[in-house]
Structures are given as structure tokens and as C-alpha cells.
Amino acid sequence: MTRALTWRAGTQAGRRWLAPAVWLLLLLAACLGMAQLEGLFRLVEPDSRAVVYARADFLVLLGRHLLVVGVAGLLAILVGVGAAVAVTRPGGRDFLPLVAQLASIGQTFPPVAVLALAVPVLGFGTLPIIVALVLYGLLPIVRNTLAGIEGIDPGVREAARGMGMTGGQLLRQVELPLAAPVILAGIRTSVTINIATAAIGATVGASNLGDPIISGIVNGNTAYVLQGAVLIGLLALTVDSLFARLQSRPVR
Amino acid sequence: MIDLIHVTKRFGEETAVEDISLSVARGEFCVLVGTSGCGKSTTLRMINRLIEHSEGEIHIEGQQIRAFRGETLRRRMGYAIQSTGLFPHWTVERNIGLVPRLLKWPAERVRERVEELMTLLGLAVDEFAGKYPRQLSGGQAQRVGVARALAADPDILLMDEPFGALDPITRETLQEELRALQARLQKTIVFVTHDMDEALRLADRLVVMHQGRIRQQGHPLALLREPADDFVASLLGGEDRGLKEAALLPVSERMLPLGPRLVARERVVQHATLREALSIMLWRHAERLTVVDDEDIPIGELSLRRLVGARSHD
Predict the structure, then answer these.
(1) Is the pLDDT of residue A220 over 80?
(2) Which GO terms describe its biological process (chain A) (predicted)?
């Protein structure tokens, strides 16, 4: 009986990890085995000399892509959650509309324009794209953190204060845990969007999975574009399903 | 124990509470009552500094409340509110243990205290300790709320319409239990409500507030018998005041020893209220009731004349 139960719990846990695992396997297989599909890409692009992007290893590009998105994501979380928390404290309330608006502007500003403006200041390479991604990814995080904290039953906050919790205890023990699912959803949106957006970094010399796409556009090679697009798509699906897995943890 | 001395609270231009003075003695059950917006909740929340008063002084055991940090002060007082404010992501056990843990009690002592309180409030430890607030009924949640307020054994308990959202039967049960609990634990309680029956049932000292001022305060019976003005009279129930008063007095207070006459057929238990006795008379068309004790043994009798005319015997 006990064994049957644990076995069942085991398979259930296994099933929840199934989607991320499948997407990850597909992603790695695509990275390693792109050359094997040469025949397929030849059909798309019969006239080109090379049909599989070979200027860099796909795994290396994947690693750099993840690094850029990861660093930008962490910064956006730090800044976004930090700002949203600050303006929901008694002392920072006056700045709430301002911060909400700034975050919205960050997202309406096209990342390409941010790149164009950032390159003269920061030079070519990875830095401008990180700046662009942080700005672009702030809004969902700020908005969801605000919604998550503001959405807490006012009675809970009043009781917490009435029981003698300090501001820090209220934030750490009550507000953040209760808002966590909503904040996580914001981070998920932000990161998933930025995985796709990061590709434009290739235009300013930040080498990542956008390279085959830009190179394909420049050289008129559709096969390159496809390879970059498929890999970015698979990466986005892998990360998104990982977040889905995190969010589906039982939330009390 | 709690002294408010000429306390005023202004929010910008508006005056929410104006020049109120109030003393609550140790072990006293003080109920603030009034219509919404009369300043009763503001007054309550000034006592634990959730709201800072603008003028006047508030003392707890002779010390100004501003001598303490807000958090320190609040941990010394229990606080229960209508929406319970239980933390939805914490179990019942963890919710009740909140203040003791804030006060850094050792874990073992917190656990013992939580179990003690759950037993005191009629919550089976095995059944409820691990439950989450959303798994509780309204009455159970409010019991947990009261247990949490009592957790660190505070001398003072502040309660803001704690039973306001409950159905009448559950509310009455909890009122009775709170009264019994208070008699046993001798807590000083300040309780806010807009339900006059609740106020009359619970209060040692009834404080009627209107438009930010105290209109009258004193023992419920004193207010019922001599309301200071028309507002207090109408808030206390207008023409129903006689019944409200009867609801506060036990039958035993008015009964006579068994006389030589035949024992009346209709009965009433000695700790029933005069109001209940009157209701039985109306319902049964009886002018005389036999008063019995808990074992249903006749110990006296109560006539309609005696019941209604009793005031002259005071």
C-alpha cells in the first residue's frame, strides 16, 4: 500500500517535470544535431553554399544567450521587485504612480531604440543589450509585484501590524510569501519575452542565438534564420515550462 | 489600567474623535458603541497606536503609550478584528503562536501555549492545528483570531467588532464564551461594536459615542434607566428599552419563594432572563411561572405583577 502510494506520488512528480524535460531534450538535440538536418535545410535554401550556420557552435551561442537573459532577468527582478516594494511602504507611497508609469514607459520604448541609444555610450557588445532587456522586462515584474502586494486582504495587514509585527517582518513573513505567485508570474512573462528579444543583441555584436538570424537576414539565407528561430523558440518553451512547474507548486 | 485624557484625533481638517476622556479599570469589560463613523474604531486603534492621537494623553498602567515603541506596545495587547486577519499561508497553530514567536519565546513553550489556547477556545488540537484558515468556518476562524489575541497572555484585549460577520447563533455562543473567559482570566477588554444587544450583553461599562464624542458612559442598566438624551435613548432601543433591560436581569433577581398556592404549570429556569420569562408568559398565556433550578426542582415563583412592577422594589 505504502509502496504503491509512493510510486504514484513519484510518477506524479515525474509527470510535472515531463514538459520541461522534453523541451530541454529537444533544445539540446537541436543544438547538437543541426548538422544532421542539412538535407532538410538544403530544401529551403537550394542555392546557398552552406545551409547550416557554422560560424560558432550552437551550444556556445545558447550559453551566451542564457547568460545575457539571466543577468538581465536578475537585474530586472532586483530593480523591479525592489522598486515595487519600496513604493508600497508607508514612506514611499507618494512615488507609487511615478514608478508604475516609469515601468510602463520602459516597455513602450522599443528595445531596438534603446540599443541604438546605448551603443554610443556603452560601446558594442553585451552591455547595451542587457540594458535594453532590463528596461523592457521591468514592467511585468513591477506591475505584478504591485498587484500581488496591493491584492493582500487589508485585514491581514492590519492584524499583522496590530499584533506588533515590524515593517520588515510584515514584508518578509506576510506580504512577500502571499504575493509570491503573482510576482513569479510577472517574472515568467518578463523572462520569456526577453529570451526572444535578446536576439536583437546580435546586431550590436553581442553574440548569441540571434547571430544565425541576423546573419541569415544579411546574407539572404533563410535556413540560418530558421535555425536561430527554432533554437530561441525551444529555449523559450523550456524556460516557460520550468516556470509553469515552479508556479504549480501548491500555494497555501 | 487604560486612561484616555482629553484625547482628540484629527485627520487633516476633519475631527474624528473630539476631546474624549475614558478610564477602563483592570478586569473591566468596556464596550464602545455607536453608529458607523462615530469614532469608536479610531478610539480603539489609538490605544495600541495603530493610529496616533493628535491631542491629549493616553496612559496604560500609568505610563504614556508614547513611552513605548509601537511594536512593543502592541505585543503587550491582544488585538482581534472582524475579518480575523488570519494569515492565509500559515496553519492555525502558526497563526496562534504569532505574538509569542515575535516575543522570542522558546519553541517548546510556544507549542504548549498554542495547545492550551486551542483547548480553551474549544478547538480540538489534533483536528485544527494543521489546518489553514480557508478550511475553517467563520466561527472557527474567529475562535482562532481570539486565541491569537490571547496568545502572549496580554492584560489588555482590544477587539474591533470581532463577531460582526458571524451568524446570530454562532455570534451568541462566542459572546457567551468571551464573557465567561473574561470572568475567568480577568482581562481588561475594550470592545467595539454597533450591535446594541451585543454591547448590552457584554459590557460592564458601556460607552455611547456619536460624532466623535462620548455622549454617555456607565453600567448598561444605568444607561437603560436614565439615558442622557434622545440620541442615547433611541440608540439603546427606544421603546424596546424595557425589554433590553429585562434581558439583562436574571429571573432569580425577581422571584419569590414558593408560596402556599398551587405550583404554576409553566416553568422557567432560575438563570433565564426576565425577558425570557416574559416571553414564556406571553406564549403560554400564563401570569405565573414556577422557577426551577438546573435539576428542574421548583425553588420559587414569578408573577407577571412581580416581573413588571419590580422596579419599585429596587
Answers:
(1) yes
(2) glycine betaine transport; transmembrane transport
